[in-house]
Fold these 2 entries.
Entry 1:
Amino acid sequence: MLREVLSSTGWLERTREFGRALRVTSRTPGGLLLVGTPGEDPWHMAAHLDDESRFGDAPGLAPTLVRWSPPRDAPAHLRIGMERLEAAERGETLLVVAEEGAPVPLLERVDDARRTGARVLALEGGDRELRGLAHEALTVPPAEALLSFDGAQHLVSSAAGEDPGRARRGAPDPRGLRGRLARLLDAVSGPVVD
């Protein structure tokens, strides 16, 4: 139903294009750095990308969640701080998820990562400065009536998990979101009887 509602808006194409850019640039395990703003760690996007990495056999999509203030007693994978952005290098991808405006310290670190050769992607809510630093950006305006920022994260992570070879051939990816939803619906509703 969501796809039908969004089919004439261009959102499916934009999120699919952004998701493909994310998949193509994120090939190295651990090389996808995911960061948000000081008040908003992108947990939701991290969980979806991790799922797409596992289900879509795309290890490069498993994100490294970079946090502003990780607790010292957190598990190792949740203790990665902003210094990781300072160590970003060529071949890595930095995905910035910022519904609100990115603060100056984040913009500076994004610019530094870009200068060292990291590919920068931004899913943002209208931040022109962040969009200007990104190689690829998807803007979800706050006043968008049909797609929320959270909904855009779902569509982007789903698109990133799609096998581009299958998509070119027109075949649905059984490991993608549509394939998993179809299997779930079949399991819940039972087999179709003529």
Entry 2:
Amino acid sequence: MAHFVTGLIARRAALQAFAAEQGLPAPVALTDVLALLPLSQDALDQLLPQTAHEFYPGFNALSLDLARLLAAGSRRATLLYFETEYFGGEGTQGAAVFRDGELVFGPQSAELGPINNALALLGVKTVPPALDEFETVGLQRHRDNDAWLASGN
């Protein structure tokens, strides 16, 4: 099975405001408090002009320019950026957390761990029967950005 998702996670109201300011689709609820804003290639192109970007090692979409934009957006609320790229159980994930205009975690890319570590910074704790923070917030529910956007929840 594949899992290819790129997005932002933050408190629902803050992410709704960020999405509206940037002209992006409304975020999808993950929990009572947190929401996910899937970042499709179209959304990434809308956030940043079509120019050559320098990407962080291990990331497909997190560029220095996007990190600056997210740092600025984090002055009002903590923003967690993440991306997954798995196929047949093999692949990587990456995450970065921006708070108060600064990068406070990552960017970190590895086979496992960065997203759980970043979610923990948002205060997410594993709630059984979930095995980790990733499952606790329901990130396994959909395996690509289109499915998240279509779900509306």
